[in-house]
Write a structure and sequence with these properties.
Helix content: 40-55%
Oligomer: single chain
Largest sheet: 6 strands, mixed
Radius of gyration: 20 Å
CATH topology of the largest domain: 2-enoyl-CoA Hydratase, Chain A, domain 1
Amino acid sequence: MDYEAILFDVSNGVATITLNRPERMNAFSEALLTEWADAIIRCQDDDDVRVVLITGSGRAFCAGADLKAQGDEDYALQQHRGPGERRNSLRYSVHRVPQALEYLDKPYIAAVNGAAVGAGMDMVSMADIRIASDQARFGMSYVNVALIPGDGGAWLLPRLVGKQKAFDLIWNGTIFGADEALEMGYLLQVVPHESLMDEARAYAEKLASGPPIAIQLAKQLVRRSETLPFMEALNAAQHAMTIVQSTEDSKEGPLAFREKRAPNFTGH
C-alpha cells in the first residue's frame, strides 16, 4: 500500500509511523485510519522491525474525530441512519487500529508531540510506553460534544490511572498538560519538545537491540495477566520460558556477559 496520510520509515530495527495531516491536527480520515492499521500489520509481519514508534506531524499528535469534516453534508446524512445501519460504524473505521494492535507483540511506543484529545488520547493510551513533549496536552474531550469514549478509552484508561481518576477525566473532559499526565502515571517520561524524537528514538533503539523473542513473549505475558488467574499466569510463564530457553539469544546473553561485551541478539 502507498501511504499518503501517514509517513512510514524503518531503520535500526525501529519502524516510525508519523500521522501526517498537520493541517487538521492529524484528525481521523478514512485514509489515515486505513494506512495506520496497514502499517501496524506490516510491522508485525516484518522481522526487521523490532519496535514501532508512533508520533504526529505538526503541532498535534492526534485530534481524534475531524469535527470540521463532521459539518459536511455526507456526514450529516450518516447521522440520520438508524442504529441497525450504524452498528458497525466504528468497527470498520477507527477500530481497525486497536484491532491491528491486538496482534502486535512488538513494543509500541507513542512519542506525543502535541495535543492528544478525545479519540487521539485513546490512541495514545493504546501504546505500551508513552513519552511526551513538555508541550503535549491531553483530554478525554468526548463529553464536551455529548459523546462517550468509543475507541477503547473506557477500557484502557482505568488500567492506566485507576478507576476514580478515569471517571474524573472522562466525565469532565478536562484538558491537562504533560506534567500532570506524568504525575498521574499516564506517561513514562516528559522531555523538552525539541528533543522528543531523539529521546523516544533512543529508547526505541535500545529495545530494538534487545532479544526480540524474549521481549515479545514478555509483552504477551503482561497482556494475558490482565485476565488470567495467578496460577494460570505461572503456567503461561513456564511455556514462554521453555520457548526462550531454546533460542540462540538465550545462549548469547550469558556468553556476552562472561566475555564482558555487548550481546548481539539476532532473534534466533
